[in-house]
Amino acid sequence: MTTKEILQMYKKIAVVGLSSDPGRASYGVTRYMQNSGYEITPVNPNEVNVLGEKAYASLEEVPGPIEIVDIFRRPEFVPEVVEAAIRRKAKVIWMQLGVAHEESAQRARAAGLEVVMDLCILQEHMKYFGFGGKV
Question: Would you call 85 exposed, middle or buried from its count of C-beta atoms within 10 A (0-12, 13-18, 19+)?
Fold first, then answer.
């Protein structure tokens, strides 16, 4: 599945590592995706509320189905996020620009998830759909 197909098919994004600091990349990227019509769920144990949405300490605590797990964490934290995403039956693991973990990618693919590594979800969205939201 291409990144374009992923972005067309799935609209619920759990953002792991989302910060309430407007200066952080996770904040700007997620705000853009939210403004582009995606339902976002912050996952960060250090946050209570981000971009008007309740934050959850872990993927396990997120209510309802999860489609895309967008990871804004350093590569050493990716394996635990991927394992949680597999348990939650997520559809896609999206490792943001600068984030890659080949073993976890293989594990996710073996479990039936689509995997995107080292790509920015905002840049991919803009490439295919134009400027759909405000950064």
Answer: buried
- Domain count along the chain: 1
Indicate the pairing of strand 53-54 with strand 49-50: antiparallel
Structure tokens at 123: 């840049």
Which residue intervals of the chain are DSSP H helices? 3-9, 25-35, 78-87, 102-110, 121-129
Residue-range definition of the domain harbouring residue 21: 3-128
Structure-token match 């946050």, residue found: 47
Handedness of CA 36, 23, 76, 119 (dihedral sign): positive
Residue 91 lies in a domain: yes
Confidence of residue 135 (pLDDT cuts 50, 70, 90): very low
Q: What is the CATH number of the domain that holds 106?
A: 3.40.50.720
pTM metric for this prediction: 0.94
